[in-house]
């Protein structure tokens, strides 16, 4: 079981095991915002529900982080694993401006793509193909991009992640 840890400002900070989360709550360093009542932790003196989201009581200053590095996994996640050209499930990434024509490996030049569209586009530009992008690819921002466990968030986390993204 995983638990989402929110900083005192409600921004996602980390994902920890439920044991670590319980320890933070029992020592008074965090409070529970959402919990799982179906699978409680049975202790010698009490029964506790497993926390799914906790909020730290004190603000933790996050050290400066460089920009999010571009990766295949990150591009697929940013584009919701959907091909930007046809909307089918994406399994690969495509350079909007081909590398052989000077395109670079950047967030602004890489998009999620299905294999048929990638093969069809090949080494051509969008203008040569007569295609357009429905939206411009951008570099993702926000603390949730530094936490790799947020690729598959638990359903109970959505309200907290959506509230922070707004």
Molecular structure report:
This protein has 166 residues and is of the alpha+beta class. The chain folds into 2 domains: 86 residues, no CATH class; 58 residues, Wheat Germ Agglutinin (Isolectin 2), domain 1 (2-Layer Sandwich). It has 5 helices and 6 strands; from the N terminus they run ββαββαββααα. The strands form 2 sheets. The protein has a 4-stranded mixed sheet with strand order 2-1-4-3. The radius of gyration is 21 Å and the shape is elongated. The relative contact order is 0.18. The mean pLDDT is 87.
Sheet-strand content, in percent, reads 25-35%
Give the low-confidence spans.
Answer: none
Q: Quickly give the structural class.
A: alpha+beta
Largest sheet: 4 strands, mixed
Helix content: 10-25%
| Largest sheet, spatial ordering of strands | 2-1-4-3
Please give the alpha-carbon distance between the first and last residues: 27 Å
Domain module tally: 2
Gyration radius from CA atoms, angstroms: 21 Å
Strand element count: 6
Domain HNH nuclease: 70-119
Pfam family, one: HNH
Keywords: Endonuclease, Hydrolase, Nuclease
InterPro entries: HNH, HNH_nuc, NA-targeting_endonuclease
């Amino acid at each position: 079981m995983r638990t989402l840890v929110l900083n005192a400002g409600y921004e996602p900070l980390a994902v920890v095991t439920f044991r670590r989360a319980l320890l933070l709550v029992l020592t008074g360093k965090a409070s529970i915002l959402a919990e799982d009542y179906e699978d409680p932790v049975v202790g010698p003196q009490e029964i506790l529900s497993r926390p799914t989201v906790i909020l730290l009581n004190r603000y933790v200053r996050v050290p400066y982080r460089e920009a999010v590095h571009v990766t295949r996994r990150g591009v697929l996640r940013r584009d919701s694993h959907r091909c930007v050209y046809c909307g089918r499930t994406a399994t690969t990434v495509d350079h909007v401006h081909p590398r052989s024509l000077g395109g670079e490996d950047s967030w602004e030049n890489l998009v999620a793509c299905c294999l048929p569209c990638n093969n069809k586009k090949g080494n051509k530009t969008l203008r040569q193909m007569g295609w357009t992008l429905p939206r411009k690819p951008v570099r993702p921002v926000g603390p949730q991009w530094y936490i790799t466990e947020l690729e598959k968030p638990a359903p109970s986390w959505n309200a907290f992640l959506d509230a922070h993204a707004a």
